[in-house]
């Protein structure tokens, strides 16, 4: 759900139970954050030495992916799935390390806070005012064999924080007034419950390919969220192909068509032509003139998403139609 609820503690408890049953378990990387109760659970487990990496004059201790692949346990523990690796390691992101382990036949236990899901991060920023910089594509979690929600009532988490069980004493007051307000934690808990409920419900009825148009990362992530929940392929039409958008498209395995700069009348024609060829089940568009023109012209279900910096209320009211027409519930 959030930092401090006990994700790493629960993962280590599970690892100890597996070891007691004779399962070959190795701790690839676990962050105790100075919590004595968590560190105590490492006793008796095989812990792989970390790999020192010098970055900006500081020595960081990171996951030694090559050593873990050579050791090849049945189960590996790799904490903090959303972590960004420093330069010099095989992959940019830790979730890519985890994927390499699973491709090698190693079962991986890992941890993730709900705000680090890529399609949830911008919602969390709107709720908390804090930008989430490290994210994981939703499909990585969707493809997991099992997802376990480690839940803790917001009041209890704030109490743990006040007792110094989450952050050092000098950071407690700032955390309680910032990210860890009661309102923020309640919202994060609801998001976490919704995510796990959606995964537990299984994959819904087929929707058809999802086609998204535009250069907005927020609009793309909304389309990716739907595509991954329905298990459908994702297609992106973009005019300017911003670098950040292309990185997201690659991470979410979307097929990309770069159209180049178009005049307003040409955009709808390009969208219609591609939609005829692809026959998508859903077309995702940013709120604006193109969405207004496409309504009534495209036979597909439309999902209209406010791009960055635009509030959905006034514009949706002016357009005179809902943000989504008959989209099946995931």
From TrEMBL:
Record-level GO cellular component terms: cytoplasm; plasma membrane
Gene3D superfamilies in UniProt: P-loop containing nucleotide triphosphate hydrolases
Record-annotated Signal transduction histidine kinase osmosensitive K+ channel sensor N-terminal domain positions: 1-197
Molecular function per GO: phosphorelay sensor kinase activity
Record keywords, A-Z: Kinase, Transferase, Two-component regulatory system
UniProt KW Transmembrane helix keyword: no
Protein name: Signal transduction histidine kinase osmosensitive K+ channel sensor N-terminal domain-containing protein
Lineage, uppermost ranks: Bacteria, Thermotogati, Deinococcota, Deinococci, Thermales
Domain of life of the source: Bacteria
Organism: Thermus scotoductus
